[in-house]
Amino acid sequence: MTKLSGVSMVAVALASAAVLQACDNGADNGSGDVAIQDPVTPFPADPGANSGDATKACTPPRSDVFSFVTLGTGSWGSWQACYTYCPAGSFAYSASLRSEVGQGAGDDSALNGIQFNCYDRTSGAYMGFIRSHAGFWGTWGTTAVSNPYVVSNPFVGGQMKIEAPQGIDDDTAANTAQLKAMNGVWSTPSANTGWGSWQAAQSCPAGQAICGVNTRVEGQQGTGDDTALNGIALACCGF
User: Fold this and answer.
1) CATH number for the domain that contains residue 96
2) For residue 174, what are the β-bridge partners?
3) Strand pairing of 229-238 and 90-99?
4) What is the pLDDT of residues 136-156, one digit of tens each?
5) Shortest CA distance to 10 belongs to which of 133, 114, 109, 134?
6) Phi and psi (nearest 5°) for 48?
7) Cβ(217)–Cβ(80) under 8 Å?
8) Domain hosting residue 93, numbered range
9) Among 210, 229, 222, 235, which Cα is nearest to 79's?
10) How many helices (H) and strands (E) does the chain have?
11) Cis (ω within 30 of 0) for the bond into 148?
């Protein structure tokens, strides 16, 4: 993977599709043996990922947030000013990634964003999606669900694949991620690139599950080297 210095990217303008109330916070910024998905479910059909618009979303903090875990972080960009949370009583049971395909001799940004779909822990009703900064480039891939896809088995942790700084070559930072359900089974949303190394897996403490997300994103660099998503942090609520 090489980079032609001075090549500028043309951002893909995608339609806004916010479900939860948004606010602009001003920040422009296990590998192996992954189980086959077997979605048995009382849930409604998964709505899939909506097109991102690179906005920054915030929702009011939940009263049942007990801890935070960071799946990984690269070398560039800024964390958003606030987390985005699932509505009270709901948790993350499925997720998708926004990533850009390899650009050949162009500037690769790789992983740009992550989205979680929230479902009520009692009824299984779909409660909307959450995402932090969605990045600037790429498309939303196939959604991965917790396995089995039942109300007692939300996501509780995960890990990221991050490429180290490449010096004068093309930097990409975050490339992909996978998520762990409460029962310990891993699920992997589809992504367009896979450079880098897996970071150590991180999980919410026992009795907690993913209810919010924050991301570290580098702003558009113009003729410089774009890396987009650099890190993912998760909020854990009592389950």
Assistant:
1) 2.100.10.20
2) 162
3) unpaired
4) 899 999 999 999 999 999 999
5) 109
6) 75, 175
7) yes
8) 65-238
9) 229
10) 0, 15
11) yes
Domain presence at residue 55: no
Which single residue is written with the structure tokens 């192996």?
32
Classify 176 as helix, strand or coil. strand
| Domain count of the fold of the chain | 1
Nearest to residue 214, comparing CAs of 91, 80, 56? 80
What's the one-letter identity of residue 65? Answer: V
Selection from 138, 94, 146, 91 nearest residue 115 by Cα: 94
Report if residue 47 sits inside a domain. no
State the DSSP string of 71-96.
EEE-SSSEE-SS-EEPPTTEEEEEEE
Parallel, antiparallel, or unpaired: how do β-strands 90-99 and 139-140 relate? antiparallel
Amino acid identity of residue 156, one-letter, is V
Could you give the percent of the chain with pLDDT greater than 70? 76
29 vs 178, which has greater pLDDT? 178
How many other β-carbons are positioned within 10 Å of the β-carbon of residue 220? Answer: 17
Site of tokens 């043309």 = 10
Q: Are 20 and 60 in contact (CB under 8 A)?
A: no
Per residue in 42-77, pLDDT (tens digit) is 555 555 444 333 345 678 889 999 999 999 999 999
Q: Has residue 57 been placed in a domain?
A: no
Neighbour tally for 239: CB within 10 Å: 18
What is the reported pLDDT for 87? 96
Q: Is residue 58 part of a domain?
A: no
184 pLDDT above the threshold of 80: yes
Candidates 62, 4, 15, 42; CA nearest to 213 is 62
